[in-house]
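tmp note - Reverse transcriptase zinc-binding domain-containing protein
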Amino acid sequence: LAYNWVTKILEMPDSRLPKVCYQRLLDLNPKSENLNWISQLRKMLAQINAEALLDNLSANFWKNNKMRILSKYKIYLKHKDLIRYADTQSCQVAIPRSMYDSTPVYLQNCPQKLLLTKIQLRLANFFSCNLSINGNPLNLRPKEQCRFCHNLDTMTIWHFLLDCPRFATPRQLILKPDTKKSHSFNLTTILDDHLFSSSQRLYSYVQECSNIITHDKYCIL
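out:
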């Protein structure tokens, strides 16, 4: 948005007020960035070594370099996200990522309800994991003992997807984890499989677990 606005300003005659203000902001002390959006833009461009762009007052130059600049900034942000993700200690499942990963296919071809379930599980941290199935909340508390099986295991997504005996039937019928592989391998496979069928199975499993929990509540009542 800021890039497009600068381009439009540079296309204006020198007498136009936006261009007069733009020139004035360029001349102000860069330390006043809280009140100077040009200084903020310069700071952003400096992150990709492109701050010199602001010294060029040609609208055509800005237009011709738009995709190059935006592409560099996109790569910069992706790299920054990867560093933060690699350094985090709060994710329950740290799925390996690299700069060369493309947009996951499931983000493009899955219905929103399937996406929501997978994303909520992938974002689970060691403090909370809040799921929503057809508008019904399902809260997993990873620091507390599992309230569905009472096996003294904490309610992590690892336990929920692969261990909890209360959900053994839907696990065997729907998720079908490879019993010859480690839990870590199965968990990463379940959450990082980009196939539509995988997302559908994961959603169906969580939905069936939600139905079991609801049924148990009514039985208790």
